[in-house]
Amino acid sequence: WFLWFQAISHLSHHKAKVEAMTLDLALLRSVQHFAEAFKAKNVSLHVLVCNAAAFALPWSLTKDGLETTFQVNHLGHFYLVQLLQDVLCRSAPARVIVVSSESHRFTDINNSLGKLDFSRLSPSKNDYWAMLAYNRSKLCNVLFSNEDPEDWTSVLGGA
Ligand SMILES: NC(=O)c1ccc[n+]([C@@H]2O[C@H](COP(=O)([O-])OP(=O)(O)OC[C@H]3O[C@@H](n4cnc5c(N)ncnc54)[C@H](OP(=O)(O)O)[C@@H]3O)[C@@H](O)[C@H]2O)c1
C-alpha cells in the first residue's frame, strides 16, 4: 500500500489522471467486463502489470468451476491479456509484466510422460495442497511470460 500510495502521489504531482476499476480475477465474466469497460475508454495501454495473486487458500472452486489459486494467479491474467491484446498491439510500444515467484521452481505440471497434466493445474480437493497450487500457478506465470507475442492468437484459439 505504501508503494501504491507513493506512485499515486508521484502521478498526482505530475497532474496525471488516475482511475480505479473493479476486476475479480476469480470470475471470467468479471475479466470480460473489465476488458470491455477498459476498451470503451479508448485509451492506450502501454504497460499491463499482472501482479495480483492469492496464496495459501483452502481448496475452493470458482464460479467457473476451476481451482481458485489457479484461476486468480494465472488464468484470469492470461484471459485478460488475451482480451486486451489488440489494445496492446495498437499501443506499441507496450509491455506485459507477469509477476511470478522463485517458488515456481519447486513443482512440475507435466506427468511422468512429460506431457502437460491438466489435473495438476486445477486439482480436486483430495489432490490439493495450497503451497503446490501456488507454485504451479507461478510456474504458469513464467511459461506465459515466455510466450512469443506472435503466438498469442494461436494460444487464444486453443484455450
Ligand atoms: N510477498 C512475497 O513474498 C512474494 C514473493 C514472491 C512473489 N510474490 C508475487 O508478487 C505479487 C504480489 O504479491 P504480494 O505479496 O504483494 O501480494 P498481496 O499483498 O497479497 O496482494 C495481492 C493482491 O492481489 C489482489 N487479488 C487477490 N485476489 C484477487 C482477485 N480475485 N481479483 C483481483 N485481484 C485480486 C489483492 O487485491 P485485494 O487487496 O483487493 O484483495 C491484492 O491487491 C504476487 O504475484 C505474488 O505471487 C510475492
TrEMBL record:
Q: Which domain of life is it from?
A: Eukaryota
- Key words, A-Z: NADP, Oxidoreductase
Instruction: Write out the GO MF terms.
Output: oxidoreductase activity
Pfam families with a match to the protein in the record: adh_short (PF00106)
Q: Does the keyword Oxidoreductase apply?
A: yes
Protein family: Belongs to the short-chain dehydrogenases/reductases (SDR) family.
Full protein name: WW domain containing oxidoreductase
Task: Give me the gene this protein comes from.
Answer: WWOX
